[in-house]
Specification:
8 helices, alpha+beta, Alpha-Beta Plaits
Length: 231
């Protein structure tokens, strides 16, 4: 039995000199921390939906990085060899949100820490960052004002749009800024885009009802700003 164990440990010898216990501890640490990262992303995501493959990658990425870090060790030549091998890979998946990029770097950092066998430091870093992410979500840090909207309206080109909308804006808006004016339908209509701040978050319906008689049969759109997804 002891001879069998010695042969098994001999498989982990050679230039790497990685013991089975070290390998298992590093991979287990990377897996647990990756699962924490994935769950943190999933539970704090505030968009319409999240990518299932992405949350799985957040678990697998620390494992792969930890193993690569173990292989490289302190050997500079081996590090350059791995860089050359990995350089042939072309990553074509675009990261849609900066938030996703932060989680990818978090997963890579955890994998490097586990691969370098700084296990307690890696676990502590993961837990601290998890608490920070949940805290940012809980306090709503960086969430935009819900009263800030984009109003897109089409009016007859013969009308003075600033004048006909002035009274309506005075009643319903705390502030507004004209972003653009464009001629549409062969110059028959003006399409005006305003950045508006409502006096009350629930005042959207009343604003649209008061603007409708001015616009007539032309379309009116009141929407949130691009990128309103919370952290």
């Amino acid at each position: 039995m002891s001879e069998l164990l010695e042969r098994f440990e001999g498989l982990f010898g050679g230039p790497l000199a990685v013991k089975p216990g070290d390998l298992l501890a590093a991979l287990l640490c990377a897996f647990c921390c990756g699962f924490i990262i994935s769950e943190t992303y999933r539970r704090t995501h505030r968009g319409v939906d999240f990518s299932r493959p992405f949350v799985q990658v957040l678990i697998l990425c620390p494992l792969v990085v930890a193993f690569v870090t173990l292989i490289v060790g302190d050997d500079l030549a081996r590090a350059f060899t791995l860089v050359g091998a990995l350089s042939v890979i072309r990553f074509r998946t675009a990261v849609k949100e900066p938030r996703d990029l932060a989680f990818i770097f978090w997963a890579v950092a955890v994998g490097m820490g586990a691969g370098c066998r700084f296990l307690s430091l890696t676990v502590m870093f993961t837990l601290v960052l998890m608490v920070i992410v949940f805290l940012l979500v809980a306090i709503g840090y960086g969430v935009r004002d819900k009263t800030l909207k984009v109003l897109r309206i089409r009016l007859d080109s013969s009308l003075d749009y600033d004048e006909v909308l002035r009274e309506c804006f005075r009643v319903h808006l705390a502030d507004h800024q004209r972003l653009s004016v464009a001629l549409v339908r062969q110059g028959l209509l003006n399409e005006i885009v305003y950045l508006v701040r409502l006096k009350r978050a629930e005042g959207e319906r009343q604003l649209l009802e008061d603007v409708r008689p001015i616009a007539g049969d032309n379309p009116i759109t009141l929407s949130g700003r691009d990128g309103d997804t919370a952290f």
